[in-house]
Protein 1
Amino acid sequence: MAALAKITSVSGKGVHVPGSDIDTDRIIPARFMKCVTFDDLGQYLFYDVRFDGNDEKRDHPLNDPKFSEASILISGVNFGCGSSREHAPQAIYRYGFRGLIAQSYAEIFFGNCATLGIPCAVATAEGIETLSAAVAADPTTEITIDVEACEVRFGDQKIPVTIVDTARDAFLSAQWDPIGELVDGTPEIDATASKLSYMAG
Amino acid sequence: MIQPRSLFEKVWDSHSVRTLSNGQTQLLIGTHLIHEVTSPQAFGMLRDLDLKVKFPNRTFATVDHIVPTTAHVEPFSDPLAQEMINALRDNCKEFDVKFFDIGSGTQGVVHVVGPEQGITQPGTTIACGDSHTATHGAFGAIAFGIGTTQIRDVLATQTMAMTKLKVRRINVDGELPPGVYAKDVALHIIKLLGAKGGIGYAYEYGGSLFDNFSMEERMTVCNMSIEGGARCGYVNPDQTTYEYLKGRPYSPEGEAWDTAVAEWDAIASDEGCEYGDVVKIDAADIAPSVTWGISPDHGIFVTENIPDPAAAKDEDTRISIEEALEYMKLPAGAPIAGTKVDVCFIGSCTNGRLSDFREAAKFLKGHTVASTVKAIAVPGSEIVNHLCEQEGIAQVFRDAGFEWREAGCSMCLAMNPDKLEGEQLCASSSNRNFKGRQGSPTGRTVLMSPVMVAAAAVTGVVSDAREVFGMAEKAA
């Protein structure tokens, strides 16, 4: 298996989706979970707030051509609350986002993102305001989430951010997806299984 | 001297592979159950990583969430549903996984199939991409619901990264009054401890009530552990467990059976083991229960009134009652009995087993479903369906005016065509009363036991089954 890459930073253009308590149902409505791959989920990201009942575009930052190249999502408090559905971070990733900057995240959502290699940086309200103002003024602003230095840089500015220690360590040590470490335990797995009579049957 | 341990600790210890770098345990999952909704992406990830299923003989699949229940005939009217069953079939074939397919006589809701095949056994660890996996704890298994990336982990390595839980012992002693069932016990526990009360815990259910419960009753209570916030719930294995398992297709046979029973006896919690918490409940205090709101802990006895936000103990509770009543369109402070019902649903992994239909049929016989009610009975598996036909139970339901359906999850979560419409209110034997859960964004769910659903079907309103069916007199 290919080794995971260290994630020391992610860079790209940003888009600000304002609001608090943006839940997983809003991120990906339940009806789009009838699927056999996560591949097509990107187009349904925020579907019910991006499109009306006739699939016509509503006024939403993701529908604004100025932000069509964005790969850093900026939002508010308690982002990703609600269900544990992995479809939510999958939709975000497959839409093209590679990093998130918000004031806080729901716990399960944060864990799901970490496993997918999406750094979720926590900024203050003032930090989000400064960053979103810069993005609004110039959508081509290049933003860097520096996981190692715990800061977000854009233009000639920077704001301090926090990234939960366990996740930060996992990104920097290339252990953010547990599969590699789990597979590495194969001899121990086999030894444990061999001691359980029902595993032999 | 060896420290006394709970079943949870013993199973955890025997299945711990090693400690991972982040401090979590790499836990061996002895039995992996999969279904069509959460597994296809996991198989995709497996292919992307060029990995195989490590223990195909410990992986079992069935199809339940998306199957239509009017008839198990393909192609399904919903092409997406057809694509999902096709994908599961292909994945099982490619990776050599046993598939309990529709028409095989063994398909059903994954949490009904595992036990009835004898796949669910004491002292094992079980995982499935479905939060109601806790059901299997009824056999003294430690059973977790997991996410899709964890399904990939279990497929590829038969292990997953997990943090150890504390154990809360819930003792229920005494006997249930007539007309009170395992479902009422589950709803009562959730009401007492809250929908988030079990976070961080495994629930160990015990006491004389559980000792005397059948396996199917134990499954109903374990099933709803997750509605109380507990990741898993279990009952220590005993003679009732062994009698249920003996002779089932995947149960050990001959000498292996005797060895297994000795191991299962030893896996039960030791006397004097320490629990993180102990709760005591008197079975005699429990009455037929129903939910009035939008969270499974919004429960009351059918004889009680809907809560009044004005009488709430604090501001948060008041806001939550108001939100629930606004959604449910129920009057504050009024009796819940008499609430008009549009749809009645008996089925699901909570209450879709033979004993559920048998008990409801016992009282339903000779009664007729109210003309204002659409009533459906959905067996939990093809085997349950077959047995209900054989015993004449299905016919009792049909004679009363129920639609008798094919096996599946159906209206519990409405990923198939069985959905509420508009603001319909459903008396349901399922497990969740969340907003929009039964397929209509404004549909309303009132959870209750199968016998209570039968009573509501007959009267057209939420009713005390003891009165409708004259149960108290019969028992006296």
Protein 2
Amino acid sequence: MADVTFTVNGKKLTAPAGTLLIEACRKAGIEIPAFCYYPGLSLQAACRMCLVRQEKVPKLQTACTTPVAEGQVFITDSEEIAQARKATIQLLLGNHPLDCPVCDAGGECELQDMTFKYGAGESLYADAKNHREEQQWSPAVYYDRPRCILCYRCTRMCGEGMDVWALGIQNRGVRAAITPNGRGAGGEQAWLDCEQCGMCIDVCPVGALTSGSYRYKTRPWEMNHVSTVCTHCADGCKVTLGVRQSNDGSEIIRADNRDKSGINGDFLCAKGRFGFDFVESPERLAKPLLRNAEGKLEPATWEQALRRAASKLKEVRDTRGGGAIGVIGSNHTTNEENYLLQKLARTVLGTNNIDHQRTTDYAAFAAALAGHTGKAASLREAATAPAILLVGGNPTEEHPLLAWQLRTNVRLNRARLYIANAKTIKLERQARAVQTLPEGGYAKLAAYLEEGASDFSKAVAGEESLLVIFGQEFRGADVKALVNWGLKRGNVRFAFLGDYANSRGAADMGLLPDRLPGYVPVSEPGAFAEEYPGLPGTAGRTLPEMIEAAAAGELGALLVVGANPAANRGLDRAALKNTFVIVVDILLTETAALADVVLPAASLYEKTGTLTNTFGDVQMVSKAADRAGVKPDFEILVRLAGAMGADARQLVPFGAGGMTADLGQSRGASAGEADRHAVWLAANNLEPKLSPFDPLAMLDEIERLVPGYRMDRMNLLGGNDVPTEPGLSPASSLVGAAPIVPAHNGLFTSGTLGKHCTALKNLAEHQAREMAEAVAK
Amino acid sequence: MSQETMSLFSPQLAARLDALVEKYPRRRSALVPMLLYAQDEVGYLSDAVVAEVAARIGITELEVRNVATYYSMLRFKPAGKYNVQVCTNISCMLRGGYEILERFQQELGIGPKGVTADGLFSLEEVECIGACCWAPAIQVNYDFHDELKPELVPGIVDSYRGKAQAEGGSSHA
Amino acid sequence: MPRLVSHPDEVKIVTRRFGLGAADIDRYMELGGYAAAKKCLEQGPEWVIEEMKASNLRGRGGAGFPTGMKWSFVPKQSAKPKYVLVNGDESEPGTCKDHLIFLHDPHSVIEGTIIAGLAIGAKLGFIYLRGEYRYLLQIMEKAVADAYARGFLGKKIFGSDTEFQIITQTGAGAYEVGEESALMESLEGKRGVPRIKPPFPAVVGLYGGPTVINNAETIATVPHVIAMGAAAYAAVGSPRNGGTRLFGISGHVERPGVYELPMGYNLKKMIYEVAGGVRGGRQLKAVVPGGSSTPVLLPEEIENLGMDFDQVGKAGSMLGSGGVVAIDDQTCIVEFAMRTISFYQHESCGWCIPCREGTDWLKKTLTRFHAGFGEAKDIDNIRYLAENMLGRTFCPLGDAAAMPTLGFVKKFRKEFEDHLNGKPCPFAKHVGLAVV
Ligand SMILES: Cc1cc2nc3c(=O)[nH]c(=O)nc-3n(C[C@H](O)[C@H](O)[C@H](O)COP(=O)(O)O)c2cc1C
Ligand code: SF4
Ligand code: FES
């Protein structure tokens, strides 16, 4: 739209015609107060806080609904306006319980802030306030009507934003209240049947909607707020953890989307918001364990445990060779840890027997795109691309953020979404066209699109540019066929959906028996040949092959870091009787229970590093919480290598500038401070890597050696997401199809971690129970 | 709603509602009348009524409740067979609306929002019913009675008692 | 059954057929019905709109917007269907005139709707009656069915190629639904919450199509305007206020009822002559001139007051819906104010803060005040509350509550003060307000 010029408080402003005055003013730094206005949601004009005076208009106008036009003149600040706002606050406070001292929102409340600003301190009213009992709608959501100011943000967020429509408004006048969609028998109780995302709590400007896990726990100012990345799905939402000192370190009290600056904008799902309590699980490991003479695991010191593990690994390597050792890495640990793990395997243990639980065929994706650059899409593009082809997958359940981006893009930008799927998925409600595929029809999809005979493929072909997002249904040759189709038609970018917070990073960092970091074939190691002395030149064993080898007595030692093959692959004690098993994990998992040595690790919320989401966007994770007794996997691996006699400096290029102080990136609840310090150091061309336990020391090497991982470091350290390429190596030698087993985690499940999240289990149970009741009705 | 589906409503009402949704450019326009007609037959908007109306219109039960709770003639608990609605708004108040209300309370032995033990009558104070020039006025269900005096109240009550007896039975079928 | 009244000063245009059995379509036609619609069909839309403009007919729903002008705002071309909406929600306390039109002359509403449809190029009209008017809805439904049977409604009305259909609709108890955009929401099966304006209904209305919405009396007047000619109609009233209006006179008068009087008719005469004066020989204390939302007038203010939109506006009140409520000297104004505000509190849709919370606090304060627990500062608080609602709410309901309240405290401050210090209400009669 063409720009128009108008005047606000005597100042000339310019904005595209039709911009809402409230937005135009905000951009110009003129704050107009608002309760009901929320960017991206439909207009309400209900709170009347944004009233402004427009020249030649008799009544005060709402800035939230006034589109700017040429020559208009506005006053947004005057005695008259201040009085109108003050009166509105006074009216609200008349029925408001004023229980700020105990309200969760105290200190983070827009009503408090406005009261402070417009000074409605004195009470005009002598009459009793309207009271209504607080209601619990679900384990996650509570509603306190007296605190509610009826701004309708929650109902709109739930309906327009989430496409769930679980919240309504019932009754009228002062009796009006927000109401959830579920009703217990007799209709007395109200409950929420929804995705339990907690977005309603997030947008509530006051303390009317509160979170089951956070309510009455603390005051906001008693917490440290640390921005990091969610540990659950592969979308990688930025999440702010509220942390408080506790007896054994510091505890996470709340997870939310405080500054909304991340890749996820306004969004956070139930897992991101409530799924942090696994850190407190009773199964959480706090001490190393060693299997004793009776075959029982018993607590040991770090020294004992590391020495035992190291000497066993050394013994197997020295006597039977690296080929007798297997290494299984993680989908949850950081890129630096994954990189270190494979480097340790390849250079210290002398083996290519390294793999991870593969949930997506990223290797095939990298191979298909080999030789092309600029074809991988960032998750941000899902929110802006004018046309999207979504093939397979079920983002609403498995990629909540992606689903949000797509819905928002369709709603606000009228993006055209095309869906081809063998199943019916909820996003079809936003789709321009849907093609139902036969089960297993993905293999033929590229040909079908190529043919262009159907309305669907014609519509897709008619798009000038296209973002192609495809699911885990695609493997090997199918990936190649689809990518080739897209490459041929041009102006296409791709994304491939995976399962866990760092599934993509695990593959990118070379937790693969035939591929080095960046999918460089072990047979043609290039630069790695020099950097990795003694790198074995032949492909190692895949995860199932390692398990087979162990059962056949061919594996003397198995190092498992942050993975649970016992639960996922049926690994058992009998199969491992001839194998010495070392497990590094945060929980006493089924696999850890089989181990000879168990080393307790810090969770993702307790360490620093980077993650790569399924779109290849890399983000920093920051240490938020702290737990006595545990160590980050990074430090554990360095120590393990050290105990084996390896040169830590060879493994981790730290302290090049000669400094050796530990700035504390990996320690203390105030790690955010250290992060800021790191940003400052980087900005001044100084070295932030000061100890062998500093994972960031690995970042240089990753950037240097991993194709596609040249990143904008300032941006990364500043807390933003930076895109990478999936790998650029020629497609020469892809070793046979590796087994891919998608996890298909839903809204409340998250593999092994999810099983240890009481909050998520409660939500899943709530939903199951209410569903059953609804069906019975 | 298809023919085979079981309906809560009498065949006549079901047929009427079937026609109602087809009447408008958009189905949902039938919602408010449908709720009112369903209430007329069932007596109130039970959970089952809400569910059937939602299904007939093709919206969620929550949406039905959002709308239904807005309108003051719609109720979610049974009323008496004869719901006495006494207007006490200004024009009626000036001409004795409150006296009429009081007299009904005495006569029926119930307060506002009350239902008699036999389920025959309920009593409500209501806002202006559009009979200001013939005040004070009341409605019993949809019947208007205007230019009332307290002494006319017993006669009105009796006439409805008689009506109920003639019909035999005291509650909504 | 509502009693019909009459007075020699009446000019019977709209009420011409009242009491003559005109609900029957044959009788209606005998009395000249449907000739106006046929004439409009022949003359075409521009002519109709010009006639309406020339008639000086102003909307009878309350705001008095010129009807012809309103119709002319509807775009000629529209991608979406256009609609006519007849507002028969009649819920403003003191108002019962549409009631009589539906009862005695339903076909005039149908005929007016057809004419409005022809004027703007709509094919569909809705007649929306408040839910309480069930017996009137049945009368309207029968009248509509009869009009269909005669071919006055349908695909080819009056044998022409023009289509016009009518759907009747019932509300279910909500004053706010009388507001035009809330009525559209209600008609779309939603909560009766008004819409953000602009866009105005003439551009984006029902189902997103251009819509004309008029009060039932306005619409019922239309055929008469056409029949008698715009100039003749205009001549009956006062300047810029064409024709007659149905004044519902209620409260403490000897002969309450709905009288059809020329616009500009003197209010004092209306009360003392037409309606027979104050009941029981008492003194007049105050008059609410146009339904409960219009500020009260004192006896001295009605001396020379001509009842049309402009004159009543100048006198600091509004002609509103034409519901004149006379209040005698034995009435407690505080109680009257309390009952008035209690209505608006009950009817506020709750959408915006000033109206939702403002009406609630006004009601609470006035209730306590009238019960003898008032404090001196309450009087100023009431005023402060009302002043801060005025002009700030989402729709005019907030104003409708604030304006009369301001009138009461300004004009009867002394009476408010007399309630202070535990003094009992000077008007002995204490009636606790039951919760509505
Ligand atoms: C709160 C509120 C209630 C209203 N109630 C009615 C009503 O019951 N009947 C009516 O005709 N107009 C009512 N109106 C006025 C309508 O919004 C609208 O102006 C009118 O129907 C237009 O018709 P007219 O131009 O013929 O007057 C109401 C307005 C407001 C703000
Ligand atoms: S689970 Fe996924 S979508 Fe939800 S917050 Fe975590 S990364 Fe984001
Ligand atoms: S922000 Fe404009 S009215 Fe609420």
